Amino acid sequence: MSKVSQFFKRFYLGLVLFFLYIPIVVLIIQSFNAGKSRAKWEGFSFTWYEQLFHNTSIMNALWVTVSVAVLATIVSTIIGTLAAIGIHAMKKRPQAVMMTLTNLPNTMPDIVTGVSLMLLFIFANIPRSYTTMLLAHISFDIPYVILSVLPKLKQMNRHTYEAALDLGATPHYALLHVLIPECRQGIVTGALLAFTLSLDDFTISYFTTSPNVQNLSTLIYSATKLGISPTYYALSSLMFVVLLVLLLVVNKRTKEA
Amino acid sequence: MRQYMTLPWWSWLLMGLGLALFIALVALSIRRNRGIKRSLFATPYVLWIIIFTVLPCLLIAYYSLTDASGNLTLDNFRTFWDSNHIMREQLRGVAGDEIAATVVRGSVNVDTLVYSLWMAFLCTAICLLLGYPAALFMADRNMKLGATLVVLFIIPMWMNFLLRTIAWMSLLEDSGLINSLLRSLGLGPVQLMYNQQAVLLGMVYNFLPFMVFPIYTSLNKLDPKLGEAAADLGCNPWRTLYKVTMPLSVPGVISGITMVFMPSVTTFFIPRVLGGGNTQMFGDLIESTFLFSGDWNLGSALSLIMMVLILISLSILRKADPNGEGGGIA
After folding, report:
1. Is B329's pLDDT higher than 50?
2. Which CATH number goes with the domain that contains B159?
3. Cα separations (Å) of B69 from A115, A118, B73, B99, B286?
4. A246 at the B interface (CB within 8 A)?
5. Given A19, A90, A186, which is nearest B39 (Cβ)?
6. Residue in chain B nearest A192 by alpha carbon
7. Test the A interface: residue of B38, B126, B174, B183 with most A CBs within 10 Å
8. What pLDDT digit, counting tens, does each position of B127-172 carry?
9. How far from B291 is each of A34, A114, B271, CA to CA, in Å?
10. I want to staple A48 with a disulfide (CB 3.0 to 4.6 A). Which of A146, A234, A247, B165 is the partner?
């Protein structure tokens, strides 16, 4: 009985994962297809990978995507961690207000967030550009950092910080050597989450950038209208592999530590 | 890099001032009572939230309540309810009441909303039916693979969302993989693309992980002794599942429903690619109102309606999970 149910469980999970992975496998296979057609296999080749590095618009978009993701992650992690520490120390009423405002962007659909930020930039007469997109990314990243750090602060013993102060630590020292290390796990999770979201964001970027500054998602979106070239498959396959390797490295390091 | 930095000078000034204010506040509080008041750490975030969350929401409300020349009006909401009302008003001026009355109530916007809600409901239901067993099996202590499986569910999300959707196209289209398989079996090509089912498939594909994670988290927190106790007291496994495990996983289920339903109402792009553009959803409607019709006032009204609907459904869901234990992705 137990063996049968064990097999069934594995089989079911396997099916769900198959469903999740099949489009990705198809995409990776197509990136090696010599022909341009999606339907026919015309032999193995690296053509699309070669073209990828000669395609300036893709390379520009890649630069925009990665730099926005990195900058947004750094800024939102700093602001978000400070905010989580601050919110944690607040009295009940202001804390509730802050938490509502922090949860609000999460529950608002992306498209409404994007549109509202677009209205803000138009209203303030700021032309949409790289910077506006970066500001938008920071805004939607911060809540995720806060929501990752806050639980760690809540789990922490409340008196640790006070004990550090009583033992003569300056607040500055106690912050750096007691509070931050205690919630390091949460900060890392938040930063990773922010980076992933920023890297993959389409809707909000679409509304907050100008047509001259495109990230990968908006570039792909405009390319779909003309029929998409397998160069994009090559690009996303490469990014996928890079991220996978990064994950394995991080995983190995955390296991050793 | 220089070409990117196109903010007007005053916004840099504003940011500088904000930063200086923050530093001054912190410095002041260090001088005055030895310890930094820790709640002050949230100052940059408070400023940020006011500029980038509160102000945009107010702007949406402002635009939805005004017309193109900035006068207060409720016309945008009337257009939502009855998209032909402007035409009727114009006809009334030209041809009189009787002819104007023949213009039927246009319901494009309402129909789109109802259709989107229905699709989101279907998508959420399918995700729950598929995702609950998956989360349950993942949390099974005998699996020993829980953490790895979570990662396996996250990895597909690293592939660009637009490209993943496009990949489904190459599976589903007439000359695609599935139809080639069917043809070699002699079953002939089947129309899989450009219909409601294809859109639904794309939505479920994209949102399924958001259902699985919260349920998995809440199931994983359960004490395994609870199941053993239920078994000792004479419950068979099904009864344990129904009486013990399921009620305790309600917070996770609610959090999952929220995370799938909310974004799927405003799905955007998927209907265009897999539905061939003949089934518009509310997200597409908001986008095209803003960017193609250029009607920010109506677009804002549509966004506001969406926001209000979501806040209402959230408060209903909150009732079922008052402590917010469901947890998010993290």
Report:
1. no
2. 1.10.3720.10
3. 20, 19, 11, 29, 21
4. no
5. A90
6. B330
7. B38
8. 999 999 999 888 876 666 767 788 888 888 878 888 888 888 888 8
9. 37, 12, 17
10. A234
Chain A residues touching B130 at Cβ < 8 A: 16
Q: Tell me the one-letter amino acid at A134.
A: L
Residue at B328 is within a domain? no
DSSP string of A79-91? HHHHHHHHHHHS-
Contacts of B306 in chain A (CB under 8 A): 109, 112
Query: Residues 16-55, chain A: which have Cβ within 8 Å of B?
Result: 16-17, 19-24, 26-27, 30, 38-40
Among the partner-chain residues A98, A115, A138, the one whose CB lies closest to the CB of B290 is A115
Across the range B173-201, mean pLDDT stands at 82
Do B141 and B256 fall into the same domain?
Answer: yes
Nearest Cα residue in chain A from B273: A224
Q: Which residues of chain B are within 8 Å of residue A111 when distances are taken between CB atoms?
A: 266, 268, 283, 286-287, 303
B83 with B132, same domain: the answer is no
Domain spans of chain A, in order of start: 57-226, 229-257
| A176 inside 8 A of chain B by CB | no
- B121 shares a domain with B81: no
Angle at Cα B89 formed by Cα B278 and Cα B103, nearest 5°? Answer: 50
Residue B119 in domain: yes
Domain's final residue, options B35, B69, B101: B101
Considering the domain A57-226 in this protein, what is its CATH number?
Answer: 1.10.3720.10
- pLDDT score recorded for residue B143: 64
Q: What is the mean pLDDT of residues B167-185?
A: 82
DSSP B38: G
* Mean local confidence (pLDDT), B81-94: 79
Note the pLDDT tens digit of each residue in B282-307.
888 898 889 888 888 999 999 999 88
Pick from B30, B63, B163: CB nearest A220: B163
Predicted local distance difference test score (pLDDT) of residue B32: 60
Do the domain assignments include residue B200?
yes
CB atoms within 10 A of CB A203: 25
| Partners of residue B66 on adjacent β-strands | B72
Q: Are residues B91 and B52 in the same domain?
A: yes
Contact B8 A126 (CB under 8 A): yes
Within this chain, do residues B290 and B168 fall inside the same structural domain, yes or no?
Answer: yes
Query: Among B101, B136, B163, where does a domain finish?
Result: B101
Residue B81 distance to chain A (closest CA, Å):
20
Q: Which ipTM was obtained for this model? A: 0.84
Is B227 within the bounds of a domain?
yes
Total-model pTM: 0.83
Q: Nearest 5°: CA angle at B8, between B3 and B12?
A: 100
Interacting residues of B304 by C-beta distance below 8 A, sequence separation 6+: B60, B61, B64
Q: Do B152 and A86 touch (CB under 8 A)?
A: no
What is the domain range of residue B188?
A: 109-320
The answer on B124 and B95 residing in a single domain is no
- Is B310's CB within 8 Å of A116's CB? no
| Residue A58 DSSP SS3 | helix
CB B41 within 8 A of CB A83: yes
Both tokens assigned to B325: 């234990």
| Domain count along chain B | 2
Out of A109, A151, A199, the one facing B263 most closely (by C-beta) is: A109
The reply to whether B153 and B268 lie within a common domain is yes
Do residue B46 and residue B178 come from a single domain? no
Q: Is A165 on the interface with B (CB under 8 A)?
A: yes
